[in-house]
Every structure is written in structure tokens, then in C-alpha cells.
Amino acid sequence: MSRSTIHLPRSARRLLSTAGALALAGVLVVGCTSNEPDEEDNEGDGEAAPASDENSGGSSNDETGETVTIGFSGPEADHGWLAAINSSALEEAEKYDDIDLRATEGTNDPGLQIQQVETFINEGVDAIVLLPTDGASLTDVAQRAMDAGIPVVNVDREFSSPFAARTTILGDNYGMGVSAGTYACQLIEENNISDPVIAEIAGIDSLPLTQDRSEGFAEALSNCGQEVDNRVAAEFTVESGEAEASNLLQAAPEIDIIWNHDDDQGVGVKAAFENAGRDEFFFIGGAGSCNAMDWIENGEMEATVLYPPTQAADGIRLARLIAQGKGMSDLVQVAVPRRIVLDAPVVTADNVDEHREGCFDS
């Protein structure tokens, strides 16, 4: 088994990155186990001291605590979004000098990933953050970790059993579709498009995430009396995106709105548009790549719907809290929730600057 161990100290700066800022649906900020200020903080003028360092944007839970060992196993970085998942986890761990991160080599082999988790169990790590190659295949080994008293944070691809993870953090695939469909309805109304032709370029149709995105899109469109007229499914790759977009354009001589599920395959989709000389439609993307941000700024794309690549970074922060017995002060029940679903906002020319720092390279 190929494996590397990384010991990552916190950097001198405590300014949270955009990855941290997007964490927990942009709502839940990591906080103290108690909502009450410490007595020593109230000495002096009688006013409570702020919970964080100046300009840190965090809370006293970011202060150094007991060192915890966190095992991280993520995917092979063969896709821009997946590469960003891995890098965001490593970068987040660097912010804390009380995290001893054991990061394995990314893999798409469930068997190898099972071995990686087994090694974490044998080493007796304090917590495991796992984005499984396949949720069902990794369920049993994650359950073994939990049975051994090691909390598991499940990222993005869910296990088959709720008992296999202490906490699950997910992007909102159904919400992506809803956001894209709702924005398409807005475009139809604002531009007075009568009898619009709406197209969809999905990802791998056999995957539940693709099915959820398509279902959300269709249901949002139905709210404004519309439906998908032309649909193709690609494979989340540049090559498949170009091939399937070309097929779509040949089948539909006129299109008003196109939603492409994935900005990585969108590189090929965009190439197909250019090769066909077609630009009569509003083009909506998905995930939030830097390419998409560029296209939006240049007027070559109407919008993209975020699927945050910060989920593993959020997982690292949550694993640290759980292993240290801490919670989240913005909740009345401060214990870390068992399930967190991140937001899927629409990025347009009006707010692209707000999301630019969180984009990923395709």
C-alpha cells in the first residue's frame, strides 16, 4: 500500500481561507463548547472580550488544544474538483498546530482505500475523514473504525449505513438542480422568452448525484411551467463533455437555456459551442471552477451553481472538534451535528468576485 504521513503545523496567520469561509453552508461557524464567555475575559471594563483574534473570523475553538491525530483518505485527483477536495483538506490542517494529519495517497480503488482505513484503525488515530471512492464499498470498514471508538467524518459520498459515521458532510446535489432550474425560470421571465427550449447536459446517469441534480432541475422548472426539452449525459470529463454537447447541438437547432452539471466537463462543452458557432443560449454551469468564473466575467457564461470543494476541509475542522470534545457555539445544542448539507448558491456577474477565491482549476 502506498502511503504517506504528513505532520502539518498551523501557519502563523489565523485568517481563515475562503475554504473555511464557505464551510458549513456559510452559516455555522466553529465555536466554543459553551456560549458563555470565560470569566477572565470579562475582567476589566466589564465587557465580554471577542471570541477570536482580531480579524481572524474564527472563535476560541481555533485556539490550540490537545493534539489529535486525524487520518485523511481522499480520491485520486483525476478531476479538478477532486483535486481541490484533497488540497483543501491539507491546507485546512495546516492552520492548526494541534492536528497531526496522516494523509494517504488519493485513490479510486476501493480495495486500496479499505486498506488505508484499516491502517488508521491499527494506528489508533483519533478521527478519520473519508471521502470514499464508493460509499457502499467503504461502509463496513468505516463501521469497524466507529466500533473501535474512532469517529469517522464521511465526506460527499454517503455510506450505506448511518452507523458508519459520526458526522456526514455533503454538497447539495438536489439543491444544485433546484438552484439551476430556479435561475433558468428567472431568465425566462426577465427576458420574456416565450415557449423556451431548455437543454441539460448531465454527468454520469448511473450515479445518484446526477439523478438528484436532474430531479432538482426538473422540479424547479415545473414551478414555472417549463420542462427539459433536450437532454444528454456525459461522464464528467472534457472529452465526453465535448462529444455529448456536439450531439445536443446537432439535435436542437435552437436552444434558449443550457444547464451543464459539471464545470470540468464544461471545458469540453464550451469547446463544442465554439466549434459549432453557437451562442444563442444562456449557459449555466455547475461546481464553480476558475474557468467558469472567467467565462462569467468575460460574458461567455451566464452563471454557475456552486458545489463546494471545501467539504473535506470542513471535515478536517469537524474531526478536530469531535476528537477534542468540542462543539459549535452557534447552535443551542452545541454538539457537532450528525449531518450537514452545504448550500448551492448561483454565481453570476453580480457576485462572481465574492466566490472567485473559492474556485478550483479544471
TrEMBL record:
Location of the Periplasmic binding protein domain: 70-326
> Which locations, inside or outside the cell, does it occupy?
Cell envelope
Write out the biased-composition intervals (Polar residues). 53-62
Q: Where is this region: Disordered?
A: 33-75
Q: Name one GO cellular component term.
A: cell envelope
- Keywords linked to the UniProt accession: Signal
**One Gene Ontology molecular-function label:** carbohydrate binding
Q: Which residues form the signal peptide?
A: 1-25
Protein family (similarity comment):
Belongs to the bacterial solute-binding protein 2 family.
State the protein's name. Answer: Substrate-binding domain-containing protein
Q: Which organism is it from?
A: Phytoactinopolyspora halotolerans
